[in-house]
Design brief:
It contains 15 helices and twelve strands. With 393 residues, the protein is an alpha/beta fold. The protein folds into two domains: 253 residues, Aspartate Aminotransferase, domain 2; 133 residues, Alpha-Beta Complex (Aspartate Aminotransferase, domain 1). Helix 5 links the parallel strand 2 and strand 3.
Length: 393
C-alpha cells in the first residue's frame, strides 16, 4: 500500500491508473468529454461520480486524477485538485473559502501576483485583509479577529527568504477557527511537510519544481477531502481553472524525479551560499541554510534543507545588480524558479516592479537584490560563474 512506501517510491507509483493495455508510462487521456452506456448511468453520474467515473475534463480526467492522487500521497493530504497554473491554485484556494464580510490575515512578504490577489482583488469583493510581518507571532495574534476566516502565508517568502513558523501560526489561527493556507513553493513537498506542521490547505505552483524543466504551467491545491470536494471543487469546476491532461502527464513525469532534482539543487544552493558569503560585492547573502540567516534555527527545525533558492544583495544597488546579471555565463536571466537550469532575476524590476519604492523597501526588496534559483549544473561551475559575475559587479 502507498501509505507504507517511502516518499521516493510514492513519487514513482502512487495513483497509477493503467488501461487494458498495461502500459508502463502513464497514459495521456486527451479528451474533454466522456460517454455513458445509458441515460440512467449519465443521470447517476451527475448525482455522484465514483473514483474512476468522469463527466467532463473541467471537472476531472484520468490523467489529471493520477497527478492529484500522486501529489496527495506524497504530501500526506486527503485529496488534491490540480489547476491550470500556480496562481489559479492560489486564487481558487482563497476565493472558494471566502465571502463578502470575511476577514483575512496575510503575511506582507508575498510574491507579486499573490500580493495582487490579496491586496487588490479580495477587498474588491468585500473581504477585509490585514497584513502582518510573517516572522512576528505577536502581530499574527493581534491581527486575528472573530471574523477571521483564514490566514495566508508563503512558508518561505519570495524573494527575501523569510521563514515563517508554520506550526505557531497554524496554532494561533486554529484558536479562532480560521484556516491556515500555505504557499509552499520554496519549501517544496520534499523538504517541508506543511500538514504535519498544522496547515489546513497547501498550495503549489507545479510549474516550479514539480515540472521543473521549463515545459508546462500547472498548480495544485491540497487539503481535506471536505475542503477539496465541497469548497474548492464547485468553485474551480464552474470557473474553469482546470489543468490540461497533457500538462498533468508532464507533471507526473516530473514527480518521478522530484526528490532527486530538489536534493541536488538544494545541495548546490548551500555550497554556493557558503562560497560567496564573504564576497566584497555583497551586502548580504539570504539563504535559510546559513547560520547567519535570521530564522536559521526555525529553518532547521521545520525543513530538511535550506531549499533551492537564495538571494544576493549587491552593495552597489541596481547598477551593480545589472552588471552581475549581464556577466553571468551559465545562470540565465528569467523570472521563473525551480528549474533544471539555474535562473536569476532582479525582483525590483520584474516580479515586484508594480510596487512603489517605499513598498519594496518595507519588504526588504532593495535595488541590489537578485534571486538565484539553483538548477542541476555542476556546483563547481555555478560557483565559478557567480564569483566571476560578482567580480564584474
Amino acid at each position: 500500500m502507498s501509505e507504507d512506501w517511502a516518499p521516493r517510491t510514492r513519487l514513482v507509483h502512487s495513483g497509477t491508473r493503467r488501461s487494458q493495455y498495461g502500459e508502463t508510462s502513464e497514459a495521456i487521456f486527451l479528451t474533454q468529454g466522456f460517454v455513458y452506456p445509458s441515460a440512467e448511468v449519465a443521470e447517476a453520474r451527475f448525482v455522484e461520480s465514483g473514483p474512476d467515473e468522469f463527466i467532463y475534463a473541467r471537472y476531472g480526467n484520468p490523467t489529471v486524477r493520477m497527478f492529484e492522487e500522486r501529489i496527495a500521497a506524497l504530501e500526506g493530504a486527503e485529496d488534491a485538485f490540480a489547476t491550470a497554473s500556480g496562481m489559479a491554485a492560489v486564487h481558487g484556494a482563497l476565493f472558494s473559502a471566502l465571502k463578502t464580510g470575511d476577514h483575512v490575515v496575510a503575511a506582507k512578504a508575498l510574491f507579486g501576483s499573490c500580493l495582487y490577489i490579496v491586496e487588490t482583488l479580495l477587498p474588491r469583493f468585500g473581504v477585509e485583509v490585514s497584513f502582518v510581518d510573517g516572522t512576528d507571532l505577536d502581530q499574527w495574534r493581534a491581527a486575528i479577529r472573530p471574523d477571521t476566516r483564514l490566514v495566508f502565508l508563503e512558508s518561505i517568502s519570495n524573494p527575501t527568504l523569510e521563514v515563517i513558523d508554520i506550526a505557531a501560526v497554524a496554532a494561533i489561527a486554529r484558536e479562532s477557527g480560521a484556516l491556515t493556507v500555505v504557499d509552499n513553493v520554496f519549501g517544496t513537498p520534499i523538504f517541508q511537510r506543511c500538514f504535519d506542521l498544522g496547515a489546513d490547505v497547501v498550495v503549489y505552483s507545479a510549474t516550479k519544481h514539480i515540472d521543473g524543466q521549463g515545459r508546462c504551467l500547472g498548480g495544485v491545491v491540497l487539503g481535506s477531502k471536505t475542503f477539496i470536494r465541497k469548497t474548492l471543487e464547485p468553485f474551480l469546476k464552474h470557473t474553469g481553472g482546470a489543468l490540461s491532461p497533457f500538462s498533468a502527464w508532464v507533471m507526473l513525469k516530473g514527480l518521478e524525479t522530484l526528490d532527486l532534482r530538489c536534493r541536488a539543487a538544494a545541495a548546490a544552493a548551500q555550497r554556493l551560499a557558503e562560497a560567496v558569503s564573504d564576497h566584497p560585492a555583497l551586502a548580504q547573502v539570504l539563504y535559510p541554510g546559513l547560520d547567519a540567516h535570521p530564522q536559521a534555527a526555525l529553518a532547521r527545525r521545520q525543513m530538511e534543507t535550506g531549499g533551492t533558492v537564495l538571494s544576493l544583495d549587491l552593495a552597489g544597488g541596481k547598477a551593480a545588480a545589472f552588471r552581475f546579471l549581464n556577466a553571468l555565463r551559465i545562470v540565465q536571466i528569467s523570472n521563473n524558479l525551480g528549474d533544471a537550469k539555474s535562473l536569476v532575476t532582479h525582483p525590483a524590476t520584474t516580479t515586484h516592479q508594480r510596487l512603489t519604492p517605499e513598498q519594496r523597501q518595507a519588504l526588504g526588496i532593495g535595488d541590489g537584490l537578485v534571486r538565484l534559483s539553483l538548477g542541476l549544473e555542476d556546483p563547481a561551475d555555478l560557483i565559478a560563474d557567480v564569483r566571476q559575475a560578482l567580480d564584474a559587479a
